[in-house]
Amino acid sequence: MVTTESVTIKVPVGMSKYLKTANSETELIRNALFLYPYILNQTISHGGAAEILGIRKYELIDIYDKLGYSYLDMTMDELDLELETFRQLKKREAAE
Question: What gap in Å lies between CA 11 and CA 72, rounded to an integer?
């Protein structure tokens, strides 16, 4: 269990009714979303955010994936290019 504390945040009036948590899953998702901008700007890692939330990194990645936030920010073409570059470098190392 994660130790929690209450904080005060300013939100638009219409938003406040949605912040009254109904269950622990909704609260976890909300808190993960609060942390996402800090992952995005590389203030913290996925692992660091998961630790704060008291879950495993892969569980946090799964939450973000279900919400449409990809862990990898590459397209398949970019990933293929990266893999090909890696393979070429490995061939050079083996040849040396």
Answer: 30
Strand, coil or helix: 21 = coil
Q: What is the pLDDT of residues 16-60, one digit of tens each?
A: 888 887 799 999 999 999 999 999 999 999 999 999 999 999 999
Cβ atoms 53, 31 nearer than 8 A: yes
Q: What is the pLDDT of residues 59-91, one digit of tens each?
A: 999 999 999 988 876 678 887 888 898 899 888
**Nearest Cα to Cα of residue 39 among 57, 23, 24:** 57
Residue 72 DSSP label: S
Which 3 state secondary structure label does DSSP give 67?
coil
Which of the 8 DSSP states describes residue 17? G
CA atoms within 13 A on the CB side of 64: 23
Of 20, 27, 22, residue with least CA distance to 2? 27
Nearest C-alpha neighbor of 55 from the set 6, 7, 5, 2: 2
